[in-house]
Inverse folding.
């Protein structure tokens, strides 16, 4: 029986991949994942066997990885960002069920909330919420409630999956919900292609964010009531008394 390691590879560049993740990928025999994520590591580990599935085939991907491990191979399932935050670790455990075989190890990675925040400044120095706007697995009504609750709680908010070809207006809809509670001039930011070619960042207001042309490569940040734009950077103070 082999071992299955679920590896968070970070935003995509090797500088932001942990040594532990690199070691797991060097030591495995087979790398499995969504084809976009596999392509991020394929060149660095050319001696591996690669198995991929398209988007929406997450369960098939996880079953494939489990089957390869059951054949006695050491397998790595790659996830962008972190392996457990919107990653495959949970589904891998669900599909293995109560069995203890194959052995599973979860290797964390740098999620977009962290890497995108660093690109924009320091918008998450205090409490924050992370919400995905994809309603493929979560009903939109539940997403609406979470957005409203985060706004009412004065949390900084990170929005994953803000828009796609099938959901072009979801960020606009989310901003409409937030604007019921938050002012139009609330500082916000967008990080795109974090750690990859074409990396970019934009600092703007919540009112401007409503019409921003976001896509699936964007991570969106909405400040709390204390967030300010300082020297062009998004900064949320933690509240140190001697500042």
């Amino acid at each position: 029986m082999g071992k299955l390691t679920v590896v968070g590879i970070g935003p995509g560049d090797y500088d932001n991949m942990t040594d532990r993740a690199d070691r797991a990928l060097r030591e495995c025999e087979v790398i499995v994942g969504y084809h976009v994520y596999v392509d991020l590591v394929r060149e660095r580990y050319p001696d591996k066997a690669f198995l991929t599935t398209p988007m929406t085939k997450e369960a098939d991907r996880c079953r494939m990885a489990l089957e390869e491990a059951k054949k006695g191979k050491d397998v790595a399932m790659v996830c962008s960002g972190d392996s457990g935050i919107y990653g495959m670790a949970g589904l891998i455990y669900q599909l293995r069920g109560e069995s203890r075989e194959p052995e599973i190890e979860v290797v964390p990675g740098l999620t977009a909330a962290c890497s995108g925040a660093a690109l924009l400044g320091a918008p998450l120095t205090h409490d924050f919420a992370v919400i995905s706007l994809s309603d493929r697995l979560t009903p939109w009504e539940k997403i609406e409630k979470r957005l409203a609750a985060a706004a009412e709680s004065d949390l900084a908010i990170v929005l994953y999956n803000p828009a796609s070809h099938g959901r072009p207006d979801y960020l606009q809809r989310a901003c409409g919900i937030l604007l019921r509670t938050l002012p139009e001039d609330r500082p916000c930011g967008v990080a795109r292609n974090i750690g990859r070619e074409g990396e970019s960042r934009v600092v703007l207001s919540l009112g401007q964010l409503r019409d921003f042309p976001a896509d699936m490569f964007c991570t969106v940040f909405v400040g709390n009531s204390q967030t300010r734009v300082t020297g062009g950077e998004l900064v949320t103070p933690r509240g140190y008394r001697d500042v």
